[in-house]
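Hey L., structure's done. Input below.
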Amino acid sequence: MPSIAPYDFEAFVETALFLGDEPVFALVDGTVRFPAGGERVVTAHEGGLTTARYDPFARRLLSGGEDGRVLAIKADGSQSELVRIERKWIDAVAGGPNDSVGFAVGRAASVRFADGRVKDFLHTRSVEDIAFAPKGMRLATARYDGASLYFAATESAPATLEWKGAHIGIAFSPDGRFLVTRMQENALHGWRVEDGKHMKMTGYPAKVKSWSWSVKGKYLATSGAPAAILWPFSGKDGPMGKAPLELGTRGDSMVTAVACHPVEEMLAIGYQDGMILAVRLSDSREAVLRRAGLSPVRTMGWDGKGARLAFGSESGEAGVIDIAA
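Output:
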């Protein structure tokens, strides 16, 4: 078994990740914990944290809270307030190019540029999630009945991608060719960006709450079933007409979190009973990283080299797994 440095927090762990070599845990109570080498606690949001996400462009943690603030938190624990909106709470955050940050509040998706200027994109219904394309200032929003695409630095009209239902999460493929949404139903939906051709990804027994792109974007791994479901995206048409891979099947426990290894074709899979497996994509070989715990694994994140995995659960159980130990 790999070695585990365990932590026990008193609140639901929303996001576990690494900032440089530092394992970091964002909790729904509004605190951000840096437990290695003696715990440091950053009080980020009064009233509670509503969203937290790694910013791959600036390599920092972005968080939003019930206090209407968007914060940037660095590896040394320093924080800076990027946005403050009175009497509102932040529904989603996303890092963008050139030190920009996107955030969603109610029916508005907004972009804060590096100079502090904020541009709003209003919708007829609530914006559930936002994402930036891997290149260029293009913002995507998840909304009811589909997604919208904006060139954030221009005044051009948005491109709309329609599909009936509530879309609650959104992500671009690493090469920017595809846009995928998580739905309130037990399904994903996707579009090829260049022509809007859509694709359905269904058959889940539960809602998809966690997803992760494999190295080079070959697969999109997802939770929501007794196995991790990996949709192929390497071809021109993505998963259209193709069956997904199913890894780490356990009939007695649902997959609740997934995290693709940053270097190798390998996947960490977290389960409802707290277990974590590592599975190699090429031959489905499994290794137990953590035996069952007290509650479902909520979140996992690898360090840059893929040597350590941070994880957090709904009951506050957390830790760092050293897979080389």
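The mean pLDDT is 96. The CA atoms of residues 221 and 230 lie 4 Å apart.

-- N.
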